[in-house]
Amino acid sequence: MSYRVVGDTSRRVIDVAIGILVGLRGCSDQAAFDELVRVVHETGIGIGRLATGLVAVASGSSTAEHAEAFTVWGDLIDRARLVSLAN
């Protein structure tokens, strides 16, 4: 994986966001990172902010500030929660 971010906290949040996508999609770390980058290019939102939004949405603590992440990944996360509740 190759990405450049400012600050250790951003790196950790990006790693957590990648882990969330790996868990939800069953994909590789690289595919998850590529998805984050694709959404960054589509939205113009920085990777740190987008990753923070994904983590917030996945943890159920999202706010209006995380609306873009919810728009992109909210349905995926909701489906995973439903599957989890059904089991």
UniProtKB/TrEMBL annotation:
<dbReference type="InterPro" id="IPR005561">
    <property type="entry name" value="ANTAR"/>
</dbReference>
<feature type="domain" description="ANTAR">
    <location>
        <begin position="1"/>
        <end position="55"/>
    </location>
</feature>
<dbReference type="InterPro" id="IPR036388">
    <property type="entry name" value="WH-like_DNA-bd_sf"/>
</dbReference>
<dbReference type="Pfam" id="PF03861">
    <property type="entry name" value="ANTAR"/>
</dbReference>
<dbReference type="GO" id="GO:0003723">
    <property type="term" value="F:RNA binding"/>
</dbReference>
<protein>
    <submittedName>
        <fullName>ANTAR domain-containing protein</fullName>
    </submittedName>
</protein>
